[in-house]
Amino acid sequence: MTKNNDYRYKTFTTQLLLGDMRFHKSAPKAGEPFPDFKLETTDGNVISKQDFTDHKPMLLIFGSLTCPMTASAMPIIKHLHKQFGDKVDFVLMNVREAHPGELIPQPETISSKLEHARLLKRLYDVDFTVVSDDIEGSLHRALDPKPNAAFLMSATGTVLFRSLWASDKKALAQALDHLVHENPQRKTQSQRMFVPVVKAMGHVYEVMQRGGSRSVRDLWIAGFPMALAGRLASLLQPLPKDMRGIVSVSILSAVMFVLTVFVAFT
């Protein structure tokens, strides 16, 4: 788990990138209690764990303005909300900025973090509840401070399912379908990396530009392959953004293969 004094980082690093690739061993698993929480909504209300227990299950999604994974995930989450929102409460929680920069810095006060949550709601036209974690990310850290994970909580207040990426449509749809039809969960987590991350490459350039030149610079330093794939994807208009990511990574993979073969035979 991220140390408290490191939580609100100002510079994205390779260590953070690597840490996002798997759930931490201390993260709550299926069958374990969901942490208690009180979270302020973008319209000034407060929700708590007790508002959901004995009422409805809840799907909690992490996101931020400077997270390309969030940008890729939101159309999927909104589609799932239309499909399952009458049986499951969807909550988008604004967490720390994934790639802070001079245009969108890491919030230093709860008021600025709430403003980021309001901007997040407007940016993606979210029609379900959007909240902000507290300034030190108490719930985020208690679950696992990933940039765009999703946790499904039962109406009894336990973790039912967790997904490393909210853009893992297949895994989340299956978990929600099993829940609403009262079937046992076949899988209790997803840590799929390849497809969610590849699709998100089509959103990288736009999201980094939103954060500012420092966001762009830090990504080139900390995650060069991600920055390169994102920049190439930005040139592949008018393809849809997720498809740009797929094509970009395919092109770079093909180039790497050709270079490897060339070096091997010279």
Structure, described:
The protein is an alpha/beta fold. It folds into 2 domains: 187 residues, Glutaredoxin (3-Layer(aba) Sandwich); 71 residues, no CATH class. Helices cover 44% and strands 13% of the residues. The protein has an 8-stranded mixed sheet, with helices on one face. Helix 6 packs antiparallel against helix 7, helix 6 crosses helix 9 and helix 7 crosses helix 8. The chain is globular and about 65 Å long. The mean pLDDT is 95.
List the helices and strands and how they pair.
Blueprint: H1 14-19, E1 38-41, E2 46-48, E3 58-63, H2 68-84, E4 89-94, H3 110-123, E5 129-132, H4 138-143, E6 150-153, E7 159-163, H5 169-180, E8 189-190, H6 194-211, H7 213-222, H8 224-234, H9 241-264
Parallel strand pairs: 3-4, 4-5, 7-8
Antiparallel strand pairs: 1-2, 1-5, 3-6, 6-7
Q: Can you name the CATH architecture of the largest domain? A: 3-Layer(aba) Sandwich
Q: How many domains in all?
A: 2
Q: Which structural class do the helices and strands define?
A: alpha/beta
Tally the helices.
9
- Ranges with pLDDT <50 over ≥5 residues? none
Provide the β-strand percentage band: 5-15%
**What would the principal axes of the Cα set say about the shape?**
globular
**Major sheet description:** 8 strands, mixed
**Element string (H = helix, E = strand):** HEEEHEHEHEEHEHHHH
Query: What is the CATH C-level name of the largest domain?
Result: Alpha Beta
- Overall mean pLDDT: 95
Cα-to-Cα separation, first versus last residue: 47 Å
> How many strands?
8
Radius of gyration: 19 Å
Name of the CATH superfamily of the largest domain = Glutaredoxin
Helix amount: 40-55%
Major sheet: arrangement of strands: 2-1-5-4-3-6-7-8
